[in-house]
């Protein structure tokens, strides 16, 4: 009679759990495979001394080594959060370890850096639990036995993700103590580690492949067999017998034609986020030194590193490490990538700031690493401007890599490998990693997602896997590289190989066919609160972008008139770099901790102070001030915009000036000034104006009226009627009102500082009560002052202004804000019919729906706009301008501008306190495309500069336009600067409305030649120039084109 086999069937769920526990560090860790990873340990081999740095200072190695260290042991706790503790380690290797490799195991429940005794950073360490854990440092490849090794460890009292109080994004716990739980040396068991990594892949396939696939079943069976063979009583032979099974399984090759994955090592280091800039400077050193060590053991390993700013910091703080990185870069192992100064926010910076991100980034890489970057690498930012493709291509880059749209919370983005078509039609090959993360663990699940979530397999059978721990740095781990080796060519998975991003894109470019195209912005359907959070940061950014523009313009003017003038290039570079730094994608969006925002505001303050002084001294070179000459004071108005303008300006009261009206406090007065493009005008030359404005009451209504409009307000300051006199047209719908302050409940699902969710729109309520009164009555300027009690805790004072010379109605607002998860918006309703609204953007505009028809429409319930949003129908429109805000929500004929939020994480004090901002409504005939809205929005943001000058200087220097565009009102000449590498003048202009332009560039300068160039100022084709006419030949531009010209001046 036959006997039955002793082998029972195996059950999938039970086998999977059995296999998980087999390698677990938590369960059965005293007897399972995990328990075998080290053959020997010596906890008493390390003598330990510590020096705790007073306060929260981060000191360099050279200072630390000189301090007095005192003995300490494991089991002690160190703190508070953000403090630093230096340890001296004296390690004696046991004699019996001769011939073995030796590792130091260090767990301080925090981040730490191993230093050699001669002051070279060797490797970063991360303690505590979690995937970021990295506690091993290879001390000796082969011990002699009995030798002594000395080194230093710099312990930073923060985790990889800062020190959030009971949660990732909570404000930091300020006095946390970090436990030094493990300091020992150990001998790794090579066979056990091999099996550990093998099991990782086999178990991953058993879990991740379709349950009924033969390969999944085979993997499950192999797991069972391996664990069966793991005989604790005969470990050495058991491990070899287990490895026979695992290696047989892993030796089966992938089928031809399977998907190909290029695994690119990366380490996302947020330049500030849940930690301040100061900690980032150390994170870069820890993360990158670690990668150099991995390169020593894994010759196939390639690492990419972005953000020129971080490299510049490293070169100053850690010059020896920087040299090592440059060496690794020469060998192609450590590749710089990204092309920009920092990985910036891509909603809020101006068009020119985008250009400078690339200009400073590419020039840095070219100078320090010998070449420009081909890949614009930006895995983690909150939406991508439609103007980026053109700027990428004009900045010497060719490809774009990201993944962030995988976070969309309404629609799945439909493409993986595709052609991104920009606002002007420029095309960029783009890849959004289908693994849907930039911190991939390079495990089986990443491989499976790379095909399963790849939406363009029909056109391109390859994808990029950005692997390596990140956000707080860290980067790839040994385990990831081991997994990639095992997944190189194995049946059941895509083929995976380490490589570089550039090689990946070049291979796609060669092989892909029929790629789909996506036109316009890559709108991110999440983090819509970041257009508004941390209002002071946004305000500084907008104001300083314009201030630096004015210095460059004035300095170039000086250079044009006087070729001996010393253009302040280095000073300007420093200011630009600081401004660009704060455009990092957690700083400008307002999603960092309070410490980071305090740093950012201090940097802004410093930039502002220096920049204002520079502008003043530069203008003094143009027109000497009266203080310099001792003459009578005169005031000049300087128009820094590219077109003539007539405005009512405020000037100090001064005898002889033609003041037609004093201000309410009588210290200043108003005068109407007309200036040419980029030119000065003596304020006293202004003529009395025949246009008048007045303020008066009629019953319960308060009225501001000039030659263009009549604006009626109720006693709460609501705009109840806005009437265009020449068009005979009422703009406020019957029974409705504008300028309504509204409070919304603002409680997102998780990401407090980041998100506002659609449902907040259900909760809008009129904010408190308000009282309006007339302050100024004309004839040049009429004003109302409205005092608001917005809530029990918050107040506002608003000055509403109408001048004699414009239909524009301005609202200057100051708020004392003390709220909790409450959103303040101002709301206008217009009698205008349109399914789209037009928003100002980087060097162009973008139209978005005002309807909620489709999920793509209502996903845009809150969008980013720069200086204006416009709602127009046939024949007429109204723009809502602002001077430092970015969030708009337009639905039907309701336009809202987002003013202030009050999230509590990760900065509990976000936006509390005093705020100042202005917005305006500007009615216009015709549609947006026929309007003057673009120029008006510049004028609202860039007031004429009123400067005290000497009388003789004003007489001597006849005002003349530095530059003028003749023939095309749709071209905006935005930037005038000195060339980077010569004293040529560089001007940058853009087509602002989305059409063709034909024009001539005129100038008062003594021009000898003009060439087209790109953003990096590489010289291109010559442009015809007629000296007698002081004008270029005819120039053409296409819709939303950015054109840069390099001009030689005698
Ligand atoms: Zn990030």
Automatic annotation (TrEMBL):
Pfam families: Alpha-mann_mid, Ams1-like_1st, Glyco_hydro38C2, Glyco_hydro_38C, Glyco_hydro_38N
Catalytic activity: Hydrolysis of terminal, non-reducing alpha-D-mannose residues in alpha-D-mannosides
Transmembrane domains' residue ranges: none
Keywords, ordered alphabetically: Glycosidase, Hydrolase, Metal-binding
Cited SMART domains: Alpha-mann_mid
EC number: 3.2.1.24
S-adenosyl-L-methionine keyword on record: no
Residue span, Glycoside hydrolase family 38 central domain: 525-604
EC class: hydrolase
Xref: Gene3D superfamilies: 2.60.40.2220, Glycoside hydrolase 38, N terminal domain (3.20.110.10), Glycoside hydrolase family 38, central domain (1.20.1270.50), Golgi alpha-mannosidase II, domain 4 (2.70.98.30)
Position of the signal peptide: none
Cellular compartments per GO CC: fungal-type vacuole membrane
Reported function: Degrades free oligosaccharides in the vacuole.
Protein family according to the UniProt entry: Belongs to the glycosyl hydrolase 38 family.
The protein's name: Alpha-mannosidase
Native source species: Dissophora globulifera
């Amino acid at each position: 009679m036959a006997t039955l086999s002793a082998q029972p069937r195996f059950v999938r769920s039970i086998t999977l759990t059995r296999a998980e526990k087999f390698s677990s560090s938590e369960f059965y860790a005293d007897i399972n495979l995990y328990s075998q990873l080290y053959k020997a340990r010596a906890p008493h081999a390390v003598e330990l001394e510590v020096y705790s740095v007073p306060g929260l200072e981060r000191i360099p190695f050279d200072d630390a080594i000189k301090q007095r260290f005192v003995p300490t042991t494991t089991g002690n706790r160190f703190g508070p959060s953000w403090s630093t503790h230096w340890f001296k380690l004296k390690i004696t290797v046991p004699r019996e370890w001769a011939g073995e490799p030796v590792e130091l195991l260090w767990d301080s429940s925090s981040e730490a850096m191993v230093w050699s005794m001669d002051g070279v950073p060797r490797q970063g360490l991360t303690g505590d639990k979690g995937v970021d854990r990295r506690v091993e440092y290879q001390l000796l490849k082969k011990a002699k036995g009995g030798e002594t090794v000395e080194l230093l460890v710099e312990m930073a009292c923060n985790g990889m993700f800062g020190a959030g109080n009971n949660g990732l994004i909570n404000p930091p716990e300020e006095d946390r103590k970090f436990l030094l739980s493990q300091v020992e040396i150990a001998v790794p068991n090579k066979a056990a580690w091999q099996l550990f990594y093998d099991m990782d892949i086999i178990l991953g396939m058993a879990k991740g492949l379709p349950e009924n696939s033969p390969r999944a079943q085979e993997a499950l069976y192999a797991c069972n067999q391996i664990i069966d063979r793991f005989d604790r009583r005969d470990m050495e032979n058991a491990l070899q017998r287990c490895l026979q099974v695992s290696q047989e399984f892993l030796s089966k090759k992938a089928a031809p034609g399977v998907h190909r994955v290029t695994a690119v090592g990366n380490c996302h280091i947020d330049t500030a986020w849940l930690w301040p800039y100061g900690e980032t400077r150390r994170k870069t050193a820890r993360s990158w030194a670690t990668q150099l060590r991995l390169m020593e053991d894994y010759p196939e390993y390639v690492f990419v590193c972005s953000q020129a700013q971080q490299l510049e910091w490293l070169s100053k703080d850690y010059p020896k490490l920087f040299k090592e990185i440059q060496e690794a870069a020469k060998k192609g192992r450590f590749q710089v990538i990204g092309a920009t100064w920092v990985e910036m926010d891509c909603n809020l910076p101006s068009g020119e700031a985008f250009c400078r991100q690339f200009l400073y980034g590419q020039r840095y890489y070219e100078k320090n690493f010998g070449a420009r970057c081909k890949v614009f690498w930006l895995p983690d930012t909150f939406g991508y401007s439609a103007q980026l493709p053109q700027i990428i291509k004009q900045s010497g880059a060719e490809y774009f890599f990201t993944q962030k749209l995988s976070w969309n919370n309404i629609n799945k983005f439909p493409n993986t490998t595709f052609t991104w078509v920009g606002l002007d039609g420029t095309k960029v090959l783009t890849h959004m990693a289908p693994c849907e993360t930039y911190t991939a663990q390079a495990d089986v699940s990443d491989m499976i997602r790379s095909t399963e979530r790849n939406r363009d397999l029909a056109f391109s059978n390859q994808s990029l896997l950005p692997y390596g721990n990140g956000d707080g740095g860290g980067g790839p781990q040994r385990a990831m590289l081991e997994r990639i080796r095992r997944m190189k060519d194995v049946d059941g998975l895509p083929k995976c190989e380490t490589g570089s991003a550039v090689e990946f894109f070049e291979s796609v470019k060669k092989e892909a066919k029929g790629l789909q195209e996506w036109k316009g912005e890559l709108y991110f359907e999440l983090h819509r609160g970041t257009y508004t959070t941390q209002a002071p940061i946004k305000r500084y950014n907008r104001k300083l972008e314009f201030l630096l523009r004015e210095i460059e313009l004035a300095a170039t003017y000086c250079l044009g008139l006087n070729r001996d003038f010393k253009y302040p290039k280095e000073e300007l570079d420093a200011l630009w770099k600081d401004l660009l730094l704060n455009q990092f994608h957690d700083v400008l969006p307002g999603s960092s901790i309070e410490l980071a925002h305090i740093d950012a505001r201090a940097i802004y303050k410093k930039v502002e102070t220096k920049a204002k002084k520079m502008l003043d001294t530069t203008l003094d070179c143009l027109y000497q001030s009266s203080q310099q000459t001792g003459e009578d004071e005169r005031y000049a108005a300087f128009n820094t915009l590219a077109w003539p303008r007539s405005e009512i300006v405020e000037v100090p009261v001064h005898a002889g000036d033609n003041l037609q009206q004093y201000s309410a406090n009588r210290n200043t007065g108003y005068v109407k000034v007309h200036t040419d493009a980029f030119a000065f005008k003596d304020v006293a030359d202004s003529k009395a104006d025949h246009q008048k404005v007045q303020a008066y009451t009629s019953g319960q209504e308060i009225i501001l009226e000039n030659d263009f409009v009549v604006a009626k307000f109720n006693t709460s300051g609501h705009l109840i009627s806005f009437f265009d006199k020449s068009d005979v047209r009422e703009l406020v719908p019957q029974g409705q009102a504008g300028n309504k302050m509204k409070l919304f409940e603002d409680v997102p699902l998780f990401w407090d500082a980041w998100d506002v969710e659609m449902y907040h729109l259900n909760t809008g309520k009129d904010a408190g009560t308000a009282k309006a009164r007339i302050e100024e009555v004309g004839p040049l300027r009429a004003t109302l002052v409205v005092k608001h009690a917005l809530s029990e805790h918050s107040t506002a004072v608003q000055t509403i202004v109408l001048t004699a010379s414009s239909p524009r109605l301005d609202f200057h607002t100051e708020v004392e804000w003390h709220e909790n998860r409450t959103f303040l918006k101002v709301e206008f309703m217009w009698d205008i019919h349109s399914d789209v609204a037009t928003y100002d953007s980087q060097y162009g505009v973008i139209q978005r729906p005002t309807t909620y028809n489709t999920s793509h429409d209502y996903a845009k319930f809150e969008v980013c706009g720069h200086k204006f949003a416009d709602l127009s129908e046939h024949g007429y429109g109204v723009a809502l301008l602002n001077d430092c805000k970015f969030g708009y929500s337009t639905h039907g004929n309701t336009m809202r501008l987002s003013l202030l939020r009050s999230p509590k994480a990760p900065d509990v004090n976000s936006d509390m306190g005093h705020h100042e901002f202005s917005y305006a409504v500007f009615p216009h005939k015709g549609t947006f495309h026929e309007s003057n809205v673009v120029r008006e929005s510049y004028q609202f943001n860039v007031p004429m500069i009123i400067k005290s000058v000497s009388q003789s200087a004003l007489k001597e220097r006849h005002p003349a336009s530095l530059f003028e565009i003749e023939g095309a009102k749709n071209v905006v000449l935005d930037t005038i600067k000195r060339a980077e590498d010569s004293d040529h003048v560089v001007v940058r202009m853009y087509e602002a409305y989305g059409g063709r332009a034909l024009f001539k560039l005129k100038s008062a300068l003594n021009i000898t030649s003009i060439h087209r160039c790109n953003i990096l100022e590489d010289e291109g084709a010559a442009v015809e120039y007629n000296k007698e006419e002081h004008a270029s030949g005819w120039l053409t531009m296409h819709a939303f084109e950015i054109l840069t010209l390099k001009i030689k001046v005698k």
